[in-house]
Amino acid sequence: MNEKIKRINKTTSYNERLLERLKDPKEAAAYLNAALEDADPRIFLVALKDVTEAHGGMTKLAKGTELNRENLYRTLSIRGNPRLDSLVSILEVLNLHISIEPAI
């Protein structure tokens, strides 16, 4: 039983593994694109918040975007409604950009 406890303590949580993977810009882009495919647009904001956390959190994002940290928390919440210029600024700090493709 003692060995089982040691194995449990050595495992990492799903969230820790996710955040580690989201440090890679390609993984982050794929994660955000998958979130955009969801019928609920709020899922994208939650995913963007995850990517932000993986890249140093809201304080670092606030400094990079020159946006207020509290406003960023609201913007990236489930009830958020970011302006396009804010979204572009956030994505720039995360080394990502928006791309439009035909829906064919």
What's a quick, concise take on this entry?
This protein has 104 residues and is mostly helical. 65% of the residues lie in helices and 0% in strands.
Which helices and strands, and how do they pair?
Blueprint: H1 2-10, H2 14-21, H3 25-36, H4 42-54, H5 57-65, H6 69-75, H7 84-93
Helix pairs in contact: 2-4, 3-4
Describe this structure in words.
- The structure is a single chain.
- This protein has 104 residues and is mainly alpha-helical.
- The protein has one domain (11-93).
- The chain is built from 7 helices and no strands.
- Helix 2 (14-21) packs across helix 4 and helix 3 packs antiparallel against helix 4 (42-54).
- 16% of the residues are buried.
- The mean pLDDT is 89.
Features:
single chain, 7 helices, mainly alpha
Largest sheet, if any? none
What's the SSE pattern? HHHHHHH
What is the typical, i.e. mean, pLDDT?
89
Number of strands: 0
Radius of gyration, rounded?
16 Å
**Overall geometry:** globular
State the end-to-end CA separation: 56 Å
Tally of distinct domains: 1
